[in-house]
């Protein structure tokens, strides 16, 4: 009996203030890395909670913001609150899932504070990334595939590929120098669209304007747009709204870069409108290529890149069939996103090594359906309205509003298709 009483008494002894501080700081560090990998708020919250409780905290309260994370941890009557700054939001699947595995281990109580800190150091330092020249090439190929999906002629495919690759190289080097992300977007959009237009026009392409748009579609923040919607739907309206504003600002600076290139090259007059082909094999093929290119950009492993290509083929095939059946773009995109989400969830039932790619794999498959070209065209139409003595201002405004609404509703439909399936077919975010 005395031994039992001594054991219970030991369990009720509160942790020291210094111990709680160490728990808070290491949990915040893991949460910050998860945020910078491009995950939704719920994953960050659960990861931080698992680490804190696995280290002995009995009370954990987490606030997930766009630019900061805050945590309050406690044990008994003792509590402590700490905050950390979140860096630029990117997408890194391999680091993302390595961090989730670490959180799962820590949640079982298998690790100490020092061990978790050492593992975080190792993951930041050693998690493999694709070489940046390969990423640039993959992005260029993805932009060329987008160009074919948008209807550019074959002559413009090579210029779009080269412009997209060069734009990603410029983006990589400006990011390493710490330049403001929005300014970087404008610079890259100008360089890539100007090169695509110049080369396409020199080769005799009749789709110069569409080539310019295709060359900058790697700048459209599709993952963050879908995360914004998911966060709002899962009860994080503040973070979701902040992400949505960031997406809008990125699109504005992207448009400024393209518009500046058009003005510099004397291409402000509208060119021929490309008509995207609806041949099923064509859409499936280039949807797969575009998704695979973004898989490399998002640091997928090679197995996951192959599955991302399959998801892109499914998305574009289903959407094309829906459009051919007379559905609206929004309805076809919703069904296509749901089909991709079901396919990805079904990977859990088969013994393949990349089945845990999860939501990121579904998002990569749906990215070719993000109407980035419509968004850019809508914003450029609004910019044209600021010129003095605009001819046909009413029609221009109507076109801009129509493009904006189609973008909002299409992204909303894609997000709803992914989120509804995920909610109905629940899968754990953290696994052993």
UniProtKB/TrEMBL annotation:
Domain of life: Bacteria
Cellular localization per UniProt: Cell membrane
A Pfam family: ThrE
Spans traversing the lipid bilayer: 181-204, 210-228, 240-259, 279-297, 304-321, 327-347, 359-380, 404-425
An example Gene Ontology biological process: succinate transport
Family from the record: Belongs to the ThrE exporter (TC 2.A.79) family.
Name of the protein this chain belongs to: Uncharacterized membrane protein YjjP (DUF1212 family)
Organism this protein belongs to: Roseospira goensis
């Amino acid at each position: 009996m005395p031994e039992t009483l001594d054991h219970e008494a030991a369990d009720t002894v509160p942790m020291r203030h210094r111990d709680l501080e160490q728990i808070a700081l290491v949990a915040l560090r893991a949460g910050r890395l998860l945020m910078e990998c491009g995950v939704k708020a719920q994953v960050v919250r659960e990861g931080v909670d698992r680490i804190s409780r696995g280290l002995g905290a009995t009370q954990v309260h987490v606030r997930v913001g766009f630019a900061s994370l805050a945590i309050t941890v406690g044990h008994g009557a003792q509590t402590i609150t700490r905050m950390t700054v979140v860096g630029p939001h990117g997408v890194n699947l391999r680091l993302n899932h390595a961090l989730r595995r670490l959180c799962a281990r820590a949640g079982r109580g298998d690790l100490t504070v020092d061990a978790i800190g050492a593992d975080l150091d190792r993951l930041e330092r050693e998690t493999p990334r694709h070489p940046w020249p390969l990423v640039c090439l993959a992005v260029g190929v993805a932009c060329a595939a987008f160009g074919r999906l948008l209807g550019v002629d074959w002559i413009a495919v090579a210029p779009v590929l080269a412009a997209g690759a060069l734009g990603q190289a410029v983006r990589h080097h400006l990011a390493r120098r710490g330049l403001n992300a929005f300014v970087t977007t404008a610079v890259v959009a100008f360089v890539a669209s100007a090169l695509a237009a110049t080369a396409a026009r020199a080769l005799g392409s009749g789709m110069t304007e569409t080539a310019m748009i295709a060359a900058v579609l790697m700048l459209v923040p599709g993952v963050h747009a879908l995360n914004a919607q998911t966060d709002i739907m899962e009860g994080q309206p503040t973070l979701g709204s902040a992400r949505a504003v960031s997406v809008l600002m990125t699109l504005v600076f992207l448009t400024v870069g393209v518009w500046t290139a058009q003005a510099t090259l004397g291409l402000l007059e509208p060119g021929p409108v490309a008509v995207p082909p609806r041949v099923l094999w064509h859409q499936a093929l280039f949807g797969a290529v575009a998704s695979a290119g973004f898989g490399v950009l998002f640091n997928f492993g090679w197995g996951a890149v192959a599955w991302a290509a399959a998801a892109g083929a499914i998305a574009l095939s289903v959407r094309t069939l829906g459009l051919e059946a007379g559905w609206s773009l929004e309805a076809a995109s919703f069904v296509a996103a749901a089909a991709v989400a079901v396919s990805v969830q079904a990977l859990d039932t088969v013994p393949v090594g990349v089945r845990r790619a999860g939501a990121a794999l579904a998002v990569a498959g749906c990215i070719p359906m993000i109407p980035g070209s419509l968004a850019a065209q809508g914003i450029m139409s609004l910019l044209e309205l600021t010129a003095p003595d605009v001819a046909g201002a009413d029609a221009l405004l109507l076109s801009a509003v129509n493009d904006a609404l189609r973008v909002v509703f299409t992204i909303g439909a894609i997000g709803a298709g992914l989120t509804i399936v995920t909610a109905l077919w629940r899968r754990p975010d953290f696994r052993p």
